[in-house]
Specification:
Elements (H helix, E strand, L loop, with lengths): L2 H19 L5 H5 L1 H11 L14 E4 L5 H10 L6 H5 L29 H20 L11 E6 H5 L1 H13 L4 E7 L2 E2 L2 E2 L8 H8 L2 E6 L3 H13 L5 E6 L22 H11 L11 H4 L1 H26 L1 H12 L18 E3 H15 L3 E5 L3 H4 L18 E3 L4 H14 L3 E7 L7 H9 L5 E5 L17 H6 L5 E3 L4 H13 L5 E4 L4 E3 L14 E4 L5 E7 L3 H13 L4 E6 L3 H6 L2 H7 L6 E4 L16 E4 L10 H7 L4 H14 L1
Parallel strand pairs: 1-2, 2-3, 3-7, 6-7, 9-10, 9-11, 11-12, 12-14, 13-14, 17-18, 17-19, 19-20
Antiparallel strand pairs: 4-5, 8-15, 16-18
Helix pairs in contact: 1-3, 1-4, 1-11, 3-4, 3-10, 6-8, 6-17, 8-17, 13-14, 15-20, 17-18, 21-25
Amino acid sequence: MDLQKIAHVVRGLSADGVQKAKSGHPGLPLGCAEIGSVMFFEVLNHNPANPDWPNRERFILSGGHGSILLYSLLHLTGYDVSLDDLKSFRQLGSKTPGHPEYGHTPGVETTTGPLGQGIGNAVGMAIGERMAATRFNRPEYEVVDHYTYVLAGDGDLMEGISSEASSLAGHLKLGKLIMIYDSNRITIEGSTDITFTESVKDRYMAYGWHVQEIDGHNIAELQQAIVEAKKVTDQPSLIVAHTKIAKGAPTKVDTAGAHGAPLGEEEIVGLKKAIGLPEDKHFYVPDDIQSLAQVMKEKGQQKENEWSKLFEAWKKEYPDLAEQWDTWTSGKLPRDIEEVLTLFPEGTTLATRAASGKVLNALAEKVENLVGGSADLAPSTITYLEGKGDIRPTDFSGRNFNFGVREHGMAAVLNGLSLYGLFRVFGATFLVFSDYMRPSIRLSALMHQPVVYVLTHDSIYVGEDGPTHQPIEHTESLRLIPNLHVYRPSDAEETAWSWVEALRRTDGPSALILTRQGLPVTKKPAGWDFTKGGYIIREETKPLAVVLAASGSEVSLALEAAELVEKEGLGVRVVSVPCREVFLEQDETYRMNVIPTGVPTLAIELGVGSGWYSINPKGNVSVYSLNRFGASGPGQKVAEYLGFTAQKVAERALEIAQEK
């Protein structure tokens, strides 16, 4: 197999794809053609006919802007990516979008593009491999045994998330994680000399990685570096591959101009001439290279067949483990999961973070693949799984992660672990620090991954820690992320429901917004339905004059205010909206029955509340919210200072009722 010839064909396809699209990034694909060819045609154990084979080796292109490289390799190795797909690169509805998208293109393991995310995802997948191997492998039956590879560039390694994830990987001694660093020393603005002069080699050695340096265009050196990396079992490996961006382009090689714009027809002609491709042919694949797709599919199928034979023998030998494997991969939850809904009797007063901790531990007994951790805040977020052990270097039998103070890295690792396909995952920190991991939360939503984010210490009730730690805009900003369900339960009972609904969800992430302060478990009316996102928690006792709507701690406040308003002779209904996204998904009849269009509505939020107008777009909605930062002091005192008392809310409710 002529890997150099394959690399040149990859260069031609990549240059033509970007040129035809009139946009894209040809520099990385041309510079990494040898790396990609060695990986896909020689190194990876994968089956192009079955991209979801469980024991495949994962390849992540962290620099997702170089997607045409990945698409070209997928086409040439026999994945369901045709030459016509390459010709429709970056076009609306095509199988080859501008950046790789998980679930959209066969062979794409994760959505990449925001730099550094792929590195974090790869760490999560490598952790998944170790955890799965610990749980399922038995002597003579290594049914989980594969490497995770990631190709990253200068930009990936500049992003702070790569430091967080790589530091954790080194600490955990992830010997089956191999990263190839495309060190071409060029970014959009020019040479990396203007911003990035650190020694990446020394940095990664300090993280505890095994490091090699090679010529990234020398196929023999690439092959040997992979062999050497695999010999190291107690360290992740970094292969620093020195490359030339846009290698082969006659005038744009080693220039920033090759990073993010088509090369131009004249330059492509020069490129093809230099590498021996027909200058007048576009998307050229010679017959001998095209025939390799079938060879690769047959090779991949043989690899999978060998594994399947082992897997079937393992299932017969260990039927209980096989049943567990099937349950975990199917995503099925135990039938008795709803037992947690009865944990908290009416009248109990408990912080929802504390209630969450009780629910989480009860669920962990039932959902054996539920794993997660905190960004160094488990005692405060109350997310430690008691008696379930910790993930430690070389020991992956536990279920608790210690992520350290690495919120962004934690979220990216969780995405990778979720994508691995065997585990249900959660991660915790204070709500105010969700900003540190927002890009990864957004990708959870984009990739439809059911990650659960436990975000505690909501609102100004955090108290004495002051404005730096009191979330104001955070809950509302999270609600803006499409496909993210934001649950802000009003008491312990709603907290249990929030966990159940979050775990039932398989098509996207959920965020649980939880309190530091205690909240009473309130009486619910007969027939109340948490699963609809919003419900009437208090019926009016007089002709309906005003509706109070809230979530979280403000529901208790609304209930107190309702009593004061009804003493003035007006009927008040209180609506709890623990998940606004789910409530807005309900049909109009249900929503109007809960919040009638013709009745003035006051939404209460101890933070930015601009999104509350959406709960009744045709009606008269007023919002009682906070559009300033908090203050340092006891939480209740701060709330009173800012006007969040039952009396103040009642006064505002009376005003809007009388305005009608």
